[in-house]
Amino acid sequence: MQAFQALFHHLDQVTGTRAKVSLLVEHFRSVPKADAAWSLALLLGKRRRRLITGRRLRSILEERGGIPEWLIAECHGQVGDSAETISLLWPAIRDKVDPVRSDLPKIPEQQPLHWWMESLLPSISGLKDDDEANAVLQLWQSVPEEQHFVINKLLTGGFRVGVSTGLISRAIAEAFNLDSELVVQRLMGGFEPRAENFQQLILPANEGEQRSKSTPYPFFLASPLEVHRLQDTTPDDWLVEWKWDGIRGQLIRRGDGTFLWSRGEELVNESFPELISIGEALPDGTVLDGEVICWKEEDPIPLGFDQLQRRLGRKQVGNLLKRECPMRFIAYDLLEHNGEDIRQAPISKRQQKLFELIRELKHPEQWRLQQSQHWPLKTWDELDQHRQRARRKQAEGVMLKHRTSPYLGGRKRGYWWKYKLDPMHLDAVLLYAQAGHGRRANLFTDYTFGLWSDAETPELVTFAKAYSGLDHAEILELDRWIRKNTLQRFGPTRSVRPEQVFELGFEGIHPSKRHKAGLAVRFPRILRWRRDKPAEESNCLSDAKRLMDNQRQV
Questions:
Q1: Torsions phi, psi for 471 (to 5 deg)
Q2: H/E segment holding residue 38
Q3: What is the CATH number of the domain that holds 337?
Q4: Cα(418)–Cα(486) distance, rounded to whole angstroms?
Q5: H or E segment to which residue 170 belongs
Q6: Are 410 and 319 in a shared domain?
């Protein structure tokens, strides 16, 4: 545990990529394999079962520590994290809490991380009321205070560290002299924290290494278009296709199994049984990369992302939902053909094989599997023309793929580019502000905006929240303004004078019964601070509805 706590602390203190990789390399080399396996699982941020809620931990602190609820709520509003709030408040009450006894095992010094994760912490799960509170208090009383934050995070299951999967894969590759692409590939499909699994992960590359039947390939990700990178190429070197607004997935048919994986490495078979059905008609040894999208058979354009959301995370899908939100798989690429990994072949050849495969497919609902339309470029002007047509197609923009491109893993610049639409935008009024998290926990960085209603006497109606788009100097300036112009406080949230106008950008807009405005937007962010515009001249709900209607026109 001490080694992992030290790693967590040091990762939080450094910002450079090289420094973080060095810390990870040293950690994975020095700890036992069982601890390395748990460190890897925690750093990857894979969802695991919560042993206790942050709310329950706060209530134990209140009931047994004598700290008033309002003070905990105020501190939590500033800090933004239950585990950290509790670890900061504990020293103030440590000596006021009587020692307690529980059935919690004794905690010897220098116990390894895997013992904590497999034996000690799970023993708290399932305890009720006083027994649970006693166990938590005994835990807090038994461990050094510098470990409290990490232990509280492990209890609540919400563990996040500022390192990406790519950075972790790079560190493991460097630590054990492996190719980072191989590490990424071995991690696809999930990682169970066991010593033997970590040992398998770090084995030298095996030329005849076989993938398990269900395991997907690492996804190839496009980068935002850098026009200057096209200067040494001709339009004819590239293929263009729509960038659909669904969820990226791989449809796999190997042996007797069919598997649908999301880009987030979640197996989503249960949410999309229609796609599993058509996947079962694919030849053995087939892996398709594509887009899972909500699209009716007879419609020329897909339904919005809001309809797809109705299917996400469901374990059972009823007939009504199947009719209202029918699914298609738009195949972008063919990664495995007749059991052969063809990712290194040029995309032009992979596309031809994909065309032949879909043409020969026999299934009563064959319309659910389609090859993504792609076309060559004759001039660079055509690229922008296609992009401007994307919104009428309910697409996010276009993709630009080099004819010779292999299928790589991760975000590799040069072969694939995404050229997204300019965002929709509206001017909205700042109504509420809330403190941020982490290093910005003492600043108001989370904002709620409103639009004018269309009533005879207009009033501002909450419309969207945004957390990004301002630079640091603007955040500081706005924070000072918020503190001086607060009207009311609601826990960590403040209502402010409706005077400041901001231009909000977003990718799409759709009806929503969950929001007061009756509308919801996708990926909202601040484009600019409209210091030149009074609140009375900001947009109204009818403007937002017009945007929604325009986006639906074919």
A1: -80, 175
A2: helix 33-43
A3: 3.30.470.30
A4: 42
A5: helix 165-175
A6: yes
Residue of 405, 422, 387, 469 lying closest to 222 (CA atoms): 405
The C-alpha atoms of residue 320 and residue 136 are separated, in whole angstroms, by 46
Q: Into how many domains does the chain fold?
A: 3
State which residues form the domain around 519. 424-552
Q: Which residue has the tokens 């460097």?
A: 174
415 and 437, same domain (yes or no): no
Instruction: State the 10-residue block means of pLDDT for the chain, 554 residues long.
Output: 87 84 93 93 75 83 83 74 84 79 73 87 82 86 85 79 80 90 80 90 76 83 90 91 94 92 88 95 96 94 89 89 95 96 95 96 95 91 89 90 93 91 92 79 88 89 91 93 92 90 90 84 92 94 87 55
Overall residue count recorded for the chain in this entry = 554
Q: Do 325 and 340 fall into the same domain?
A: yes
- Asked if the structure places residue 36 within a domain, the reply is no
What's the CA gap between 247 and 305, in Å, rounded? 9
Count other C-beta atoms under 10 Å from residue 482's C-beta.
22
Point out the domain boundary residue: 107, 131, 156.
Answer: 156
Query: What Å distances lie between residue 235 and 241, 282, 383, CA to CA?
Result: 14, 34, 9
3-state secondary structure of 115: helix
Spacing of C-alpha 1 from chain mean position: 28
Clarify whether residues 412 and 450 are in a common domain. no
Beta-sheet pairing, 369-371 with 257-262:
unpaired
| Other Cβ atoms closer than 10 A to 24 | 25
Distance CA 335, CA 354 (A): 9
Is the domain of 399 the same as that of 503?
Answer: no
Structure tokens at 491: 């826990």
Does one domain contain both 381 and 294? Answer: yes
DSSP structure string for 346-377: -HHHHHHHHHHHHHT---TTGGGEEEPPEEE-
Q: Partners of 331 in the beta sheet?
A: 290, 371
CA 448 – CA 429 distance, rounded (Å): 8
Cα 318 to its chain centre, rounded Å, is 27
